[in-house]
Amino acid sequence: MTLKLASAALLLTAAFTGTAHAEKTKFEYWYGLTGDLGDVVLATCQRFNEAQAEYEITCVGQDGYEQAVQNTIAAFRAGKHPTIVQSFDAGTADLMLSGQFYPVQKMMSDFDIKIDWANYFPGISNYYASSTGELFSMPFNSSTPVYYFNKDHFAEIGLTEAPLTWEGMEAAFVALKAKGHACPYAYEPSSWIDLEQFSMAHNVPVASNDNGYSGTDTTLLFNTTLELKHMENIKRWLDEGLLQIRTAQSGLTSRDSFVSGECSVFFSSIADHNTVHKVAPEGLNWDVQMIPVYEGTERHNTVVGGASLWVLAGKSDEEYKGAAAYLAFLATPESEKFWVSNTGYIPVTIGAYDALKAEGFYDKEPYVHRDIAIKSLTVTPPNNLTRGLRLGGMIAIRTEWKSEVEAALAGQKSMKEALDTAVERGDAILARFAKTYQGKTFP
Amino acid sequence: MRRAYFKTSWVAFALVAPQLLIIFVFFYWPTSQAVYWAFTLEQPWGGGNAWVGFDNFAMTLSDPIYWDSVTVSILFALGSTALAMSISLLLAMFADRQLTAYKLYRVGLIWPYAIAAPAVGLAFRFVFNPNAGVFSYINTLFPNLWDPSVSGTQALIMVIVAGAWKLVAYNFIFFLAALQSIPRSLVEAGAMDGARALRRMRDIQLPLLTPTFFFLLVINITDSFTDSFGIVDTLTLGGPARATNLMVYKIYADGFRGFDYSGAAAQSIILMILVMALTFVQFRYVERRVHYT
Amino acid sequence: MIERTPWLNIATHLILFIGLITILLPIWIAFVAATHDLAAVNSAPVEFLPGDQLWVNMKEAWVRSDFAIKFFNTFVVAIGVVVGKITLAAITAFSIVFFNYRGRMLIFWAIFITLMLPLEVRIVPTYAVAANALQPFQALLDATGISWLIQSVSGVEVALNWNLLNSYTGLILPLVATATGTFLYRQFFLTIPDELVEAARMDGAGPIRFLLDVLIPLSRTNIAALATIMFVYAWNQYLWPLLIITDAAHYGMVVVELRDLVPDSLTTGGDTPNWHIAMAATMMVMIPPILVVIFMQRWFVRGLINTDK
Questions:
Q1: Under 8 Å CB-to-CB from A212, ≥6 apart: which residues?
Q2: Is pLDDT at A243 greater than 70 in this prediction?
Q3: What is the pLDDT of residue A67?
């Protein structure tokens, strides 16, 4: 041991230039998806390696979105980072301000790879683009929220069409309860659905500065909008027995409660469509619908959730060429079809979606009605309030929202007080973020 | 304490050198950087930082929610340590009597320590599940009595029990090892004096266990403060309404979920000082009562 | 048995039995989950009796995680950690307890403090050290001007580099320094009577001889307990291997693979809750530690100090 240490210590490096020529350019890609989804990611890597002979991609699973970003930061600071990393929606504000990435749209044009950027669904591409519309990262696993409902339960109360308004939903909950269903709505507090996507669909702001796109001196506004009324309704429905809280922490997730036939409705990402198919017992008669809006408001588009692929700074041109080739490979209609047919995610380009629709993809189980998500994403073209959120410390803000909502649901304070506190604490997070990146603005 | 020593020579220093070298490289060097962050606003991707002095500490200590987290951490540490120490001591004393099937008990009681964390989370979720788990029987008797996803107190109890569960196995091994190294002749001498088995436990075995007891007390308390991240993350995510937001979990959530490296570094230092103070108190006041020779 | 105590024996069995049941209940639940299929494991109410899918699930887990190589790697790392830790902890505690020099308590505390800041919160700077374990020394040389001196005298640039990423050394080395072990040995060494030390000195035995011939044999049960704990600790390592191993095909460890099977609660849905596969994998991953526990039992024997029976 001592000897080894000594010899390592004596290793003095002369200026070293790599002359060894491997036949293939190798580069790494770290992803966060786990389980079955992780296996599908690995399959895309394998398909890429088999499809061409110039590059070899090594895909490394990082056991979760958080670890993927966390480990990439650690590696980046030591100069050992991968070329491509999968980063989830809320983890990107720091990356954007740090500037330590190679914008994909620029990279593609630098290496003369033609991608029809207009072909991407605006609700998806805008989320990952600069305020001028240049894409920073490559849209990858994409979803949007919907609600899942038990068709048999709805039929019992005479509903053949799933409601599209919250008023209609409430009426349905009341009727379901009257029919003896103790758990009409399996509720799990989710800032992604109840705050972010809710605000998009209603065209109300979450924060100032166009939800943070046009500056870092942003403050949160959600305690003053329709969000407050909605969360007060959630609390009222809980008190009236129209809704039950079902979280992983209580032992049964809202999805578990739904597939067991106990609860009639739950909200989740469209990506769960695949999962519900896999875990639902024989005979569970269910479908999905766009998230409801309140009467008297005009429905707007929801935005993408999931993750995108970022190319990091500090790599060689050769590796970037490989990364560009891989991302271009993912953007082919065949790759998109491979991805969406093996997962619950939706296609990211209009072209791929049209092609799938034309060949009857969405007419066959288990894909029937999965395109409800596309409908939800494209209700209106995104505007300055509905293209997404650009907030530093987004994950911490989500945590504040959730903790406060939990306190209100447990009866410790009113919903108004809870949201006020969440806004106050969230503003402190935003101010701290702005101070950390003083003088920088979102590109 | 000890009076007889070997003559100090280079041997003494050669023996401690390897360990010191390793902790310098893998602990003190990285930690010193984290300490530096506590006085700056550090950009996660390494774009630079600004010196802010004690601002991060002021911000942390003036936040009432941070103090809630300190309170919860202390409750958790005391609760799980007390539970784990008493149960494991009881079980070890009885297992040490070496009745029939005692080898089976021995393996069975050490078993939980061998389980990887993800399984622990899932298993406890099933045990404490208010709708369909073992604890749901409470709810059939007393409707809506048990729901750790709403009640903060119950969530804390759940986390304490889960934390103690693993410590019981850990403590059991060391208590048993210590009991087994008590010379048979001592116990036999006691038996010949006519002392009954329970008396013997109290008068002969317990005092001889104090060095191990002290070791486990210090380790259990330290562990409850610093190694409880996994339990909270799989069972409660710090909720409901921050009721189980332990200090170490909050550090992780703020720093590495929220990318506030500097705030997390300041909290880490506070946690370290707190645990050091507690350890110091134990060495100063509890160790006095330990019988070594 | 020394004397007959029928009532106490019944009480003993009762207490141990209840303890055993309580302690093993969660493990039973994990086992049952490993024996069902996807739909059953996600159904409510939870099943309490095993199904018939254990073999199927275990096979799938084994293939998906490519466990063969990972079991081997983890075994190598765990043995390395056990041997390293027991040795390091013993010699450190020996120096602190049996020598009387200034600063020995300071050293003890310096080691003890390492328990107080978990890896989770210092992971970013620790990674930098793993990428180059000699970086602290480089920084010291740079800061003190020594590297500048060497460069200006000899014209050679000093660049110390020892990369631990993707290596057994990187997996083992940071885990062998242990406050727990040092503390445990200290506790045990303090119970060694002064007379033993004096007798050894009278015989002209040096400290190393005393350590090897007297202390190590005396601390057999403690070593067995520590080895058991350390083996399991190393076997279940998760965060550190996940971070420094990107070449899982060669250096992957079991629990990292196990976690990959466990559904991520933070993705916004879409991940199949394959708890049955994850639990089947858990059952397999658990076997080596249990074997070690059983194996180590042979050192849990009574009557080591006094052999005058």
A1: A93, A218, A389, A390, A391, A392, A442
A2: yes
A3: 84
pTM to 2 decimal places: 0.88
Interface size, chain A vs chain C, as Cβ–Cβ contacts under 8 Å? 148
Of the candidates A429, A443, A417, the residue with the CA atom closest to the CA atom of residue A207: A429
**Taking CB atoms and an 8 Å cutoff, what residues of chain A touch B259?**
91, 94, 393, 395
Residue with the two structure tokens 């999805």: A255
Per-position b or e across B184-200, b if 16+ CB within 10 A of its CB: beebeebeeeebebeeb
Which helix (H) or strand (E) segment holds residue A84: the answer is strand A84-88
Cite the DSSP H helix spans in chain B.
10-23, 29-37, 55-61, 64-95, 102-110, 117-128, 136-141, 152-180, 184-192, 197-200, 206-226, 229-235, 247-252, 261-281
Q: Is the pLDDT of residue B71 over 60?
A: yes
The proportion of chain B whose per-residue pLDDT surpasses 70, expressed as a percent, equals 91
Residue-level length of chain C: 309
Specify the amino acid at residue A295.
E
CB A279 within 8 A of CB C38: yes
Distance from C-alpha of A427 to C-alpha of B180, rounded to nearest angstrom: 59
By C-alpha distance, the chain C residue nearest A88 is C267
Whether chain A has a CB inside 8 Å of the CB on C246: the answer is yes
C207 token code pair: 């400290």
Does pLDDT of B233 surpass 70? Answer: yes
Residue B177, chain C, CB below 8 Å: the answer is yes
Q: Tally DSSP H helices, then E strands, for chain C.
A: 18, 0
Mean pLDDT of C188-200: 87
CB-closest option in C44, C130, C134 to A256? C44
Name residue B85's amino acid: M
Q: What is the mean pLDDT of chain C?
A: 83
| Out of A67-71, B97-101, B276-280, C235-239, least confident range | B97-101
Task: State how beta strands A286-290 and A84-88 pair.
Answer: unpaired
Q: How far is A362 from chain B (nearest CA, A)?
A: 35
Return the structure tokens found at C158.
């000093």
**pLDDT confidence bin for C44, thresholds 50/70/90:** low
Model confidence at A3: pLDDT above 60: no
CB A88 within 8 A of CB C270: no
Q: How many CB atoms lie within 10 A of CB A195?
A: 26
Reported ipTM: the value is 0.86
pLDDT, residue B191, reads 57
